[in-house]
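Ligand-bound model needed. zinc ion.
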Amino acid sequence: MECGHRAVLVITSQVEGTSTSVARRKVDLACGLPKGHAGAHHDAQHDEDWEGAPGTRPTVLRDEDEEG
Ligand SMILES: [Zn+2]
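Prediction:
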């Protein structure tokens, strides 16, 4: 059985010529590790780790420039 802990990944990108980052899109994450695993949750499909207590749905930020 999988952990199934959920989080929201927000892809941000910097506005050209400024130091402002804006949210471009949101992706739902789901932890695919075994239920009761230790450490951070992990979504292999999106290659993202996050920390979160059961019953919470954290937001994870990722800069678009780091993608790919
Ligand atoms: Zn998990």
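The longest strand covers residues 21-30.
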